[in-house]
């Protein structure tokens, strides 16, 4: 697959993946590489542009990450962000020092003025809010650079050498807090780098299918299908490429949400593939009987899944390829040069010897989650699968607090289904990052009709987040919560109380166990 490429050179910044996502959103393919990548390797990628990320270090310290200054002689446009901007200044003869006054340190939203004659800011407003996060100060700007943006505390909030197409910003254009930040990145890509915008999921689908056919040939492929977004899109892409050469094993452990197993099976009915659904609810619940500790639940479910998959794999026999739904964030987080090995070991580790395969195939390993969803739509997967919210591998077992039983799972499924139905009906569904019901282990006294009840409490959880590293509890309208509560208490036998969780992350986590 040949596309114009931008390299995102990572100096340890917390937003490295976000920068890459913004570039992709602009229709340009990019890859994140560590700053230690040899220049010869970077040059071999033939990039149309390079972006230096931010980072926690100070450029003037001996141990801070650096890059060979020869990179500036290639003639390739470079954009330095925060640490990347200061590193560019440091290596090209400028001077970066610790801020001597608190006023020179900038954190958070900052009013900033822009020189709209600079390529980065052409056509944008002359001022706006940017997101700053730096404690060092550019005391001297390198020769050839002009000042392109300023704030009250920082006269060099952005610098530019238009002749060499070198640009630096001390703020973070990739975060939502910076107004028109994505537009600034787009100006760099199209104005400075001459991008053609040749990265689309329609094109990726076409070229990926062809590449898979060439790689797999007449071989057989085995995929463990969880019903999550990644494995589902990987299955659909492989099915389009090799059809009946693909066998998907869907282990239904009985811990899915209401009707979810049937939905997954129905979604793949249009493809000519071997779809194996294993009804394993009984054996999973038997293993979980009497178990209350969350980590024990997870270990039991993971181990039993491997055993079920082993049995089905033995029935399939030898295969040539084991497919995985690895996506690009997995690759980035695992490291660079040996990322594929690390990820393969993580996903396949523990599989039995009877899963006899020659090679691993990862058709989504270049894609971010939002791109995976787009590809799923291109492939014709139903929206209920493509837009599926994050769902834990152990399923509802960790949303039932304490011991997992059929009765508890039944209560939780019905309560969760009501919550999801009312959220969709109200239009709130697409505004939230994740929402679900959990069955607490608390029972309390209630009154229904003229009788006393002593039943379970259901907790509702809804959050908004950009990255799930932190999350804020969602301010759902009281009227909506009231409808959900009334329906759950009236329609779900065994529940007499509904709670709404208003804990953010941190200190809480999104899931309960």
Structure overview:
There is one protein chain. The protein is of the alpha/beta class. The chain is 34% helix and 23% strand. The protein has a nine-stranded mixed β-sheet with strand order 2-1-3-4-11-10-9-6-7, with helices on both faces. A hairpin with a 7-residue loop joins strand 18 and strand 19. The longest helix has 23 residues. The chain is globular, with a radius of gyration of 26 Å.
Task: Count the DSSP helices.
Answer: 15
Number of strands: 20
Overall mean pLDDT:
89
Strand order of the largest sheet: 2-1-3-4-11-10-9-6-7
Strand fraction? 15-25%
Low-confidence stretches: 336-353
List the main descriptive attributes of the protein structure presented here.
single chain, about 525 residues, alpha/beta, five-stranded parallel beta sheet, globular
Question: What secondary-structure arrangement, pairings included, does this model have?
Answer:
Layout: E1 5-10, H1 16-25, E2 29-34, H2 39-44, E3 49-52, E4 78-81, H3 83-91, E5 95-98, E6 106-114, E7 127-134, E8 136-140, E9 146-151, E10 158-161, E11 166-169, H4 181-192, H5 201-216, E12 221-224, H6 229-242, E13 246-252, H7 260-267, E14 274-279, H8 281-288, H9 294-316, E15 321-323, H10 328-334, H11 339-348, E16 359-361, H12 369-379, H13 383-386, H14 406-426, E17 434-448, E18 451-464, E19 472-473, H15 478-491, E20 495-500
Parallel strand pairs: 1-2, 1-3, 3-4, 4-11, 12-13, 12-15, 13-14, 15-16, 18-20
Antiparallel strand pairs: 5-8, 6-7, 6-9, 9-10, 10-11, 17-18, 18-19
């Amino acid at each position: 697959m040949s596309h114009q490429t931008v390299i995102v050179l990572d100096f340890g910044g917390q937003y490295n993946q976000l920068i890459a996502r913004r570039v992709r959103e602009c229709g340009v393919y990019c890859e994140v590489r560590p700053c230690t990548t040899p220049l010869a390797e970077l040059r071999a990628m033939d990039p149309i542009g390079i972006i230096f990320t931010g980072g926690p270090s100070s450029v003037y310290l001996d141990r801070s990450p650096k890059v060979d200054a020869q990179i500036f002689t290639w003639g390739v446009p470079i954009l330095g962000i925060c640490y990347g901007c200061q590193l560019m200044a440091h290596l090209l003869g400028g001077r970066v020092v610790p801020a001597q006054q608190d006023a020179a340190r900038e954190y958070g939203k900052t009013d900033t003025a822009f020189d709209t004659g600079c390529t980065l800011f052409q056509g944008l407003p002359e001022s706006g809010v940017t997101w700053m996060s730096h404690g060092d100060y550019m005391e001297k700007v390198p020769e050839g650079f002009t000042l392109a943006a300023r704030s009250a505390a920082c006269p060099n909030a952005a610098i530019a050498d238009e002749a060499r197409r070198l640009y630096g910003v001390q703020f973070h254009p990739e975060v939502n807090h910076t107004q028109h930040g994505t537009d600034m990145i787009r100006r760099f890509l199209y104005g400075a780098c001459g991008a053609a915008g040749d990265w689309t999921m329609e094109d990726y689908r076409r070229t990926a299918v062809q590449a898979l056919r060439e790689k797999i040939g007449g071989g057989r492929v085995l995929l463990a299908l969880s019903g999550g977004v990644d494995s589902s899109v990987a299955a659909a892409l492989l099915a389009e490429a090799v059809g009946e050469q693909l066998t998907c094993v869907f282990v239904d452990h009985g811990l899915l949400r209401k009707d979810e197993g049937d939905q997954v099976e129905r979604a793949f009915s249009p493809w000519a593939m071997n779809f194996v659904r294993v009804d394993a609810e009984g054996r999973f619940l038997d293993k979980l009987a009497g178990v209350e500790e969350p980590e024990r639940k997870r270990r039991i479910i993971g181990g039993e899944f491997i055993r079920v998959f082993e049995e089905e794999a033995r029935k399939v026999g030898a295969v040539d390829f084991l497919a995985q739904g690895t996506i690009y964030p997995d690759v980035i987080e695992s490291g660079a040069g040996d990322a594929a090995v690390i990820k393969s070991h993580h996903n396949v580790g523990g599989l039995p010897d009877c899963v006899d395969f020659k090679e691993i195939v990862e058709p989504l390993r270049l894609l971010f989650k939002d791109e995976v969803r787009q590809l799923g739509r291109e492939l014709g997967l139903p929206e209920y699968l493509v837009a599926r919210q994050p769902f834990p591998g152990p399923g509802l077992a960790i949303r039932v607090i304490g011991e997992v039983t059929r009765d508890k799972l039944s209560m939780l499924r019905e309560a969760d289904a009501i919550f999801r139905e009312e959220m969709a009906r109200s239009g709130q569904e697409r505004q939230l990052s994740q929402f679900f019901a959990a069955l607490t282990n608390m029972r309390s006294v209630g009154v229904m009709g003229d009788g006393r009840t002593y039943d379970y409490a259901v907790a509702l959880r809804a959050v908004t987040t950009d990255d799930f590293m932190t999350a804020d509890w969602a301010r759902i309208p009281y009227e909506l919560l009231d409808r959900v509560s009334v329906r759950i208490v009236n329609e779900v036998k065994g529940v007499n109380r509904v709670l709404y969780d208003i804990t953010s992350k941190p200190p809480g986590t999104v899931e309960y166990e």
